[in-house]
Amino acid sequence: MNTETLVRMIRRGAALDPTKTAVRSSGGELAFAQLVDGAGRIATALAEAGVARGDRVGIWMDKTPACVQAVVGTMMAGAAYVPLDPKAPWRRCQSILADCGVAAVFADGPRLAQLADLLAGLAPRLLVVDGDPGAVGAAPGMATTTLGEVLARPGRELPEPGLDDLAYILYTSGSTGTPKGVVHTHRSGADFVCWVRDTYGITADDVFSSHAPFHFDLSVCDLYVPLGCGATVRLISSLEAMLPPYLVRSVAEWGITVWYSVPSILIAMMETGGLETAGFGQVRILFFAGEVFPAPQLQRLRRALPGVRMANLFGPTETNVCTYYDLPPDVPADRPIPIGKACENLESFVLDDDGREIGVGVEGTLWIKGGNLMSGYWNDPERTALTLKPDPRGGDGVAYCTGDRVRLQPDGDYEFLGRRDHMIKIRGFRIDTGEVEAALAAQPAVLEAVVVAVAGGEAGTRLAASVVPRAGAGVDVNELRAFCADRLPVYMVPELIEVRDALPRTSTGKADRKALQAAWSQEGNA
To answer: Which pLDDT score, from 0 to 100, does residue 175 have?
Structure first.
């Protein structure tokens, strides 16, 4: 069982070779000694501003070595970091910061001009900007400094966080129209990190890619597995991440040995990046997660990289990862691959709709129990109680109801059958269609809105919205899309929007989502 916090793991990894590069990007790099020393100075500044153990710190920065220092420094101060999507509208970011009551905020780049709007109504004790402080709007009532000034001050030794202290809060899509914060402690984060390290034999000689943004749960593996092992992590910027040919060329140049991304990125690297002919450099392990990998494309990837160990890592943000499947040499092209077995540090079981445990060959809902689990949803005890429950089989401790429908196969692997609610994943981002519907319905001309996922072949899954206007009102599709773009991240704005006089209904009066999905497909919009 793991007994180290994420902070302790990073310190131990840094001690292996303090001069070695810990974090590298196209804009710069930090050696392990620089990372730990700078993070310690950041922790000191937070503590001197009154940020205490258990407080929350918002991180509104691009993915850079400086951002990694801010994240690690926050944890060194005993606080939890709350990463914000740098591309999300400031209104969404503000709702997240307000929900978790941040004690401090880090911000950089083009976000500085929006800080006055972001912080309106909030009361953080400290604002740290990485950039020109003159670009920051008025922020009355809070101390403001620059990251450069913080890093120039001496640090001091602080009490280290404990295993059950908060480490990070990742906000995901929520059905009420408000993002929900998934709370992880050092214990749950480090338990997952140790499982990856031990299962896949990660060493200080590895170089990890960091393709996922920090507000996405894949980043937990990207950052803390390599840093805890004394290995290097290569940050991939949001611009670099969108250039498949560049990624394919650069993997060898960067010396990447462990790659982790959503399947859609790997498909793009095959389709437009030339991965199948160029190869994948020195990569020895390839992880993918976040969405279903279409079987034909996965077979192509397996054929192109026969010597690479590939694994499908499965699990919601609430569990970090809960099951995994190592791909065999031959991947069938006519059926999806399994999601595999539970991670060795976890326990899994399947219940039917009546709450009875079921075995091989019967469809049910997957439950997970063990150290990787979140501690709950921030500021939402009711939602927490719905998903984290006393073991329904009568055992000790709590178990998490994933909401994933699975079937246990005779070989012990789980077959994934879908979600029991309206949660979907697009390009690895988990989206609750209820949040998108809430944004659409907030437009004054909209009476009702239903959002469904529509399969789009190699283009991937797309969001399709059907809206009904209020009596006497007209809905302009372009204006509605712009309205959503001001309130939602880009990946949550429906790509397809139609205006209907009425929605199809089921016999119980509910909107008939299956009928809408079928209509989208029949109309050829998918």
So the answer is: 59
d(CA 387, CA 5): 25
| Bridge partner residues of 377 (DSSP) | 182
pTM: 0.86
Three-state secondary-structure class, residue 462:
strand
The answer to whether residues 214 and 63 touch, using CB atoms and an 8 Å cutoff, is yes
Higher pLDDT, 437 or 83: 83
What is the Cα–Cα distance from 56 to 104, expressed in whole angstroms? 7
The answer to whether residue 328 sits within a structural domain is: no
Q: How far apart are CA 320 and CA 289, in angstroms?
A: 11
Query: Does 124 fall in a domain?
Result: yes
The pLDDT score that the predictor gives to residue 526 is 42
Domain membership of residue 309 (yes or no) is no
* Residue 421 binned pLDDT confidence (cut-offs 50, 70, 90): low
Judgement on whether residues 173 and 74 belong to the same structural domain of the protein: yes
Q: Which of 163, 186, 209 is the last residue of a domain?
A: 186
Residues 397 and 411 reside in one and the same domain: yes
Cβ atoms 130, 106 nearer than 8 A: yes
Reported as a single tens digit per residue, the pLDDT across 155-179 is 999 999 999 999 999 998 765 667 8
The candidate with the shortest Cα–Cα distance to 127, out of 108, 105, 109, is: 105
- Kindly state whether residues 41 and 131 are assigned to the same domain: yes
Q: What percentage of the chain reaches a pLDDT higher than 70?
A: 94
Domain range holding 374? 346-421
109 and 31, same structural domain?
A: yes
Q: What is the CA radius of gyration of the chain?
A: 23
**Are 88 and 149 in the same domain?**
yes
| Cβ neighbours of 502 (radius 10 Å) | 9
Question: Are 441 and 399 part of one and the same domain?
Answer: no
- Written in H, E and C, the secondary structure of 268-298 is HHHHCCCHHHHCCCCCCEEEECCCCCCHHHH
Q: Read off the pLDDT of each residue in 375-402 and give the average, rounded to a whole number.
A: 93
User: Domain boundary at 186, 210, 242, which?
Assistant: 186
For residue 93, what pLDDT is reported? Answer: 93
Q: How many domains does the chain have?
A: 3
Average pLDDT, the chain: 91
Exposed, middle or buried, 8 (CB in 10 Å: 0-12/13-18/19+)? Answer: middle
